[in-house]
Amino acid sequence: ECSLRSGCGVSRLIVAEEIYDLIFNNVLETTVAKIPSRNGKMIFDEEAIKGALKGLKVLSVGVGWGESSEYEKILEYILLNYDIPVIIDADGLNTLAKMDLNILNNCKSKVILTPHLKEFSRLTNYSIAESLEKTLECCAAFVDKYNVTLLLKGPTTIVIDKNDIYLINTGNSGMATAGSGDVLTGIITGLMGYHFEDLTKTVAVSAYINGFAGDLAAQMYGEIGMTSADTAKNIALAIKTIINM
Question: What is the rounded distance in angstroms from the CA atom of residue 52 to the CA atom of residue 29?
Fold first, then answer.
């Protein structure tokens, strides 16, 4: 829904085969594809992955994954074979942290990483305390080493690559709640689906929209009582308001 609210025409949800029927019967506006699975977790199947990813302009990976050694094979295959923007979030980041990060410098995909501080710590040798104290320096060192666009979530969201840096000033403390990162990933995916000439700027705009939608939600429900679903409901209004500014 977040991707569709952000303007992409078609969204495809790729799920484990075991839950396909449950998801398919409860999703009205999104197409659904399936990957063979075991115990509810997707397993590596090259032909199934090719079928599920056919025709995609952008892909987000990791939300709702959980943990499985199969995911390392799946993520490696995607990064090495698909010349599209790939947003890695949530358990996708935890999977990547177990891999050789040099793959980020030798892959076809245009990689966007969206960690919070704890996930960033898993990807690097920086402690959370060190990342808090020297946030910009740590981010700059990471993107200097690896060919990625990095979005580091926090009180001020940082979007950075080797050439540019953006500091996002929208958003509020009410967004520090479960699911907010998933909303952001959906917005990035939606915008990237039809506007990715300047990849890093598009990620920054997505973060701005996410924060603005959260601010609209806070006006309606208050920062204490709002949920990530309230932010998602305000994506379209946020975009409309920004366009009319």
Answer: 17
Q: Is the pLDDT of residue 108 over 90?
A: yes
- Give the containing element (helix H, strand E) for 245: none
DSSP 5-65: HTT-S--EEEEEGGGHHHHHTT-SSSEEEEE-EETTEE---HHHHHHHHTT-S-EEE-TT-
Q: What is the pLDDT of residue 155?
A: 86
Residue 22, Cβ neighbours under 10 Å: how many?
10
Q: Are 180 and 228 in contact (CB under 8 A)?
A: yes
Chain center to CA of 187: 8
Q: Name all contacts of 51-57 with Cβ < 8 Å and 24+ positions apart.
A: 52/12, 52/14, 53/14, 53/78, 53/82, 56/12, 56/82, 56/84, 57/84, 57/85, 57/192, 57/193, 57/194, 57/196
Angle between helices 235-243 and 199-221 (to 10 degrees): 110
pLDDT for 230 beyond 90: yes
- Residue 183's alpha-carbon distances to 31, 106, 176, in angstroms, are 18, 29, 12
SS3 227: coil
Q: Give the integer Cα–Cα distance in Å for 224 and 9.
A: 34
Is the model's pTM score more than 0.90?
A: yes
